[in-house]
Amino acid sequence: MPKAARELSALEVKRLQHSGKGKNVTFAVGGVSGLLLQITPSGGRTWLLRVVVGNRRREIGLGGYPEVTLAVARDRAREIKDQIRRGIDPVEERKAAKAALVAAQRRGLSFADAVERYLAAKLDAFKNPKHRQQWRNTLETYAMPELGEMLVQDITVQDVLRVLEPLWQAKTETASRLRGRIEAVLSWSTVSGHRTGDNPARWAGNLKELLPTPSKVAKGDNHPALQIDDAPRWFAAIRAKQGIGSRALEFAALTAARSQEVRGACWDEIDLDAAMWVIPAERMKMDREHRVPLTAEAVSLLKALPRFSGNALVFPAPRGGRMSDMTLSAAMKRLHEAETKKDLPGYIDRVSKRPAVPHGLRSTFRDWVAERTHFPGDMAEMALAHRLANAVEASYRRGDMVEKRRTMMQAWADYLTGTGAGSNVISIGARG
Fold first, then answer.
1. CATH number of the 10-107 domain
2. pLDDT at 104
């Protein structure tokens, strides 16, 4: 029977040295028979366990020193010897586990990668570049945070519900489109051999049993809006909050712009000296350039924002990309919840009684124009970048009334901040 090596202490192991000549040398450290510290001429140190498995002599690596300490190396050596006593070859088991992992990785496909492959395969089906971008943006904004890193084979109904439920009441149309797009990507993944079984995003006989039918959701297109009288109180609350999401929401309120227009705003679109924000046609819902006159409050907000080298976005996400729509929604939701915790009614829509959402700020602005001012309705529609309902008038109108709109937007800012003429019911004859 071979003589057992003396059990070295951690300090003694640390002091072991290579002579600097010849090949690698090994030192028995004791505690577990066959446990060695191997040292290279250049000073590299690794743990080895010399054992006999069946009729074969093995040298099994246990990791590098000092990352793997003496105590850990002894524990690993004992575990391996226990495996051998149970008839397991640790080396062969390790090879099998590695092969299984490689095979699983080859078979596995993340949802994010599946989206890219699906869009590449279906590129010809999307003849309109804007449609392609909308398809991608919807998935990136709402689905990727929850599903992006998941393998398509692991996505379940509960995972899809986690994406859809926060949107289903407030943004029913968007959520319904999102569901269909997730279903299409997962269907492609199944046909391509990356997943099996039922499609968890399927509507009939599946999500239909768990979510209300879109047509039954109360006025899904009408986003819950702030009540006019609540707007100044809400605006003061959002101004008191820190964070880029709060500033984006404040800017959205001052400009009556859509969430995606604010989140995609770039510094080269804004002329602070002229107090003008020009949104290019490709970023607008109506595919037309939209000029937004900036109020004094909006300009001050922009001047106070930090600018980040190499990032053109006015309101970037913390990691540098485009801010998620959920960031604005969350900021709005926190304001409402802070009020309800004080036993106050919060910020709710007058009709639906649901908490107001960012897109509803546009409705609040439109209601304020109609009910509290004498500004023309078509001027408000232009501010909202809507298509004029009167086709005859629209065909003759060449300008965008931008300077008259500047007066209207400043009155709106005055109302929100409780200063100037706009803080009261106003009567401004801005026609002509």
1. 3.30.160.390
2. 59
